[in-house]
Specification:
Elements: H1 2-5, H2 9-18, H3 35-39, H4 43-61, E1 68-72, H5 74-85, E2 92-96, H6 115-122, E3 129-135, H7 141-154, E4 158-163, H8 169-174, H9 176-183
Parallel strand pairs: 1-2, 2-3, 3-4
């Protein structure tokens, strides 16, 4: 819920919508109980999202044409992982300082191999669009650069941005508006947003 409370993600999206800068978006914020266990390539978390959260939201508010995932740090890696496993459901992914040094079953987020980057690199290109950013003074800079380079090499539509800051909510808040503009652009006259 830090995206909602600290970063004011919903307020930023609403302002962009009101100014005609992005398509309307519906946001669902999930409060983790134990983010290390929930976000660490956890199939139970995946099933919770797919079988409980999404059906409940769609039952109450209706279905949307496009679904996306967005997260920072551990939330960034779980967002990219969930999209990798469910490309038929998700189309866009926003990651901020994604902790790409994780691997299933591992416990060292500083030196573990970049497992998820390797999974994407070894698979056919999926129908996903990415907005990725990271701070230039954090330990995840190099892994995020390599993930962005892999996206480029595989031909994924993506935007990658580095900020002269670190692993914190001030940095991530600054990236919300640019990320929303990229992932949910306002449809042009005679065209359709991607």
């Amino acid at each position: 819920m830090a995206y909602y409370r600290t970063a004011q993600f919903a307020d930023i999206a609403e302002a962009l919508c009101e100014h005609g800068e992005i398509e309307p978006v519906r946001m669902v914020f999930i409060e983790p109980e134990d983010r290390r266990s929930e976000y660490w390539f956890n199939p139970q978390y995946e099933q919770f999202l797919l079988q409980e959260i999404i059906p409940a939201v769609e039952s109450h508010y209706g279905k949307t044409e496009q679904k996306g995932l967005w997260g920072a740090s551990l939330g960034g890696v779980v967002s990219a992982w969930l999209a990798f496993r469910n490309p038929q459901l998700f189309q866009v992914v926003g990651t901020q300082s994604a902790c790409l040094t994780l691997e299933p079953g591992g416990d060292d987020s500083y030196t573990a191999p970049e497992w998820l980057t390797q999974q994407y690199a070894g698979a056919e290109r999926l129908p996903l669009r990415f907005y990725c950013e990271t701070g230039q003074i954090e330990w995840l800079l190099a892994p995020n650069r390599r993930f962005a380079a892999m996206l480029q090499d595989k031909g994924y539509p993506h935007a990658y941005l580095e900020r002269p800051s670190g692993h914190n909510w001030m940095t991530w808040r600054q990236g919300l508006a640019p990320g929303l503009r990229y992932l949910f652009p306002k449809a042009r006259q005679g065209g359709k947003s991607v």
